[in-house]
Amino acid sequence: MNTIGRRTGAVLWELILPVALFIAWWVWSVQGENMYFPAVPDILNAFGHTWFGSGFTEHVLPSLRNFIVGLALGTFFGIVLGIAVGRVAWLRWLLSPIIEYARALPPPALLPFFILILGIGPEMQVGVIVFGVFFVILLNTIDGARSVEPTLLDVSTVYKIPRWYRFLRIILPAASPQIVAGLRNGISLAVILMVVSEMVAATEGIGFFTLQSQQNFAFVDMWSGMMLLAIIGVLVNLLFTVLIERPVLFWQRGASGNG
Amino acid sequence: MSTQTSGRPVEGSEGRPSRVAALWQSRRVRWGVAVVLDLLIVYVLWQVLSATGVLPSRFFPSANAVVERIGLLLTLPAFWAAVWATMQSWIIGLIIGCACGTLFGVLLGSSSRAYRFCRVVIELLRPIPPIVIIPIVLLVLGVTLQMKLLLIFQGIFWVTLLQAIYGVRGVDPVMLETAKTYGMSKLRRFFMVQLPGSLPFIVTGVRLAAIFALVVSIVAELVGGAAGLGNEILKAQSAGDDRTMYALILFTGLLGVVITAIFSALERFVLFWHPSQREVAQ
User: Fold this and answer.
1) Which of B113, B117, B135 is opposite residue A17, by nearest beta carbon?
2) Whether ipTM exceeds 0.90
3) Is the pTM of this model over 0.90?
4) What is the per-residue pLDDT for B278?
């Protein structure tokens, strides 16, 4: 009884600030003092009929498609090449300046380059996301692949374990904590690049819709777009923690505990 | 990148072949050789591929042309004005964001009650990419330095805040108890134990923030149209001036390399007395 009371007290304590802030925003916006900040009920209303209506297929799906395809391709190539480079010492030595340079180059700066070679369209947007994600994952995978326990590799050599099996069961798991850490950064970057590419040069997508609404003085629509993008940012982060980070790290903790 | 000691003892330096090998022992030398090799490879490859038409000249000027253009840009005041516009927002935004993030982080980290009070708001606002708030920030602040600074703030405040919170909360409790037992006052404990103990985390946060602040600056210039390198790159592209576009992108990468190198060195410098925290501070 007492512990239940304390637990609900703790939850309530955590909820005071967000609820208070939301109510404050609501009350202030309803008074309509600033035209850039429309009333919250209007925004929620617009949110409903924009994003659950035709806007879903017109803007949300293209955005999410570019995001997922770009993220998947960048991650895949980053892991494959990262392990190759990470396990071959001379390759790592030779390529590390190029990789460090590409990693330090702010990915949005390459947006005009992709507009030039791919034109305006989904290819360009996917291209920017792939580039950004690729180098984040690559660098982390290289670090991870380097850190494989040498004894494990020696044992697998002694037991004549085939190469592909060694890759799947020893190197990839050993590198996975680093890869997952890289993926967290990669996902945040992919969201940013998705929105930036839509705002600079696109004819569809949530970012396009949001900036377009701003330029047309449709501030309610603009806010509904910003709200959706914010929700996507939070949701993608949450999904990553629940679906990827926890299972992988849990497994990792168990493995290192047994070893 | 590596600033490890290069002056290792040279074994058998009496003209034996191990001299080269000894030189090779130095990470700095190996790194330098790799940099030179990479520059050569990229340059030759680019030059050959564009001369043979594998890289269509419509999209890719020759490497020579781009290098020449970088040389030309370095003499133009307009170019340096753009560099300054980017660096100005970067450094001011970095200082404000890191100062606020670290200050609030240290405060929240020292009180579990206060941290739990703010936790949900932090978790909700942290993952919102700075680009998302561009439309409203542009409306309220216009195409100004303040607009860039606010976006940079949203980009880096939360990183430094969380690093500082983790840092303060991660301080070894035994150390804190010991300090208490020795009769240290609360204020003294804070400055003598908690703050130094959390420094590695804070510095890692600052390094991440420094790199990300540059990214956000470029974004604000691309989307918001503020003066700076991002805007120049986009303008060069839409004007069909490919050489300038490539030259500016390559230069921006160099800027990123310099910032990364400086802040990695800073991190190593601060972490040097606290090696045990290195792994945790990731």
Assistant:
1) B117
2) no
3) no
4) 47
